[in-house]
Specification:
By secondary structure, this protein is mainly β. The chain contains no helices and 10 strands. A 6-stranded mixed β-sheet has the order 2-10-9-4-5-6, with no helix packed on it. The protein has a 4-stranded antiparallel β-sheet with strand order 1-3-8-7, with no helix packed on it. The relative contact order is 0.32.
């Protein structure tokens, strides 16, 4: 069965960094575009970034461009999100869904002084 396990979140001060991981199983990870999506408190889902199966093409939301970097290790079935220069508005639960039907539990990122 499909499993997605996000990790790496936490509490960080503004300007700090975090690296999120998403361990995937139950499907052919290396064949799919993978994305990071976040949900801030009281708000809807926001697409953050995605990467093609080969790992040589990326897209970012304007709100994170230049600060976040998505990557993947197809041998480890793992997706990453390096987040630098974090801002309070980056506070959210971060997910790496597979399609529209499969979601993990997410990982909480809180940016606060």
């Amino acid at each position: 069965q499909v499993q997605l396990v996000e990790s790496g979140g936490g509490l960080v001060q503004p300007g700090g960094s975090l690296r999120l991981s998403c361990a995937a199983s139950g499907f052919t990870f290396s064949s799919y575009v993978m994305s990071w999506v976040r949900q801030a408190p009281g708000k809807g889902l926001e697409w953050v970034s995605d990467m093609n199966p080969a790992g040589d093409s990326t897209s970012y939301a304007d709100s994170v461009k230049g600060r976040f970097t998505i990557s993947r290790d197809n041998a480890k079935n793992t997706l990453y999100l390096q987040m630098n220069s974090l801002k309070p508005e980056d506070t959210a639960v971060y997910y790496c869904p597979y399609g529209v039907s499969y979601w993990g539990q997410g990982t909480q990122v809180t940016v606060s002084s």
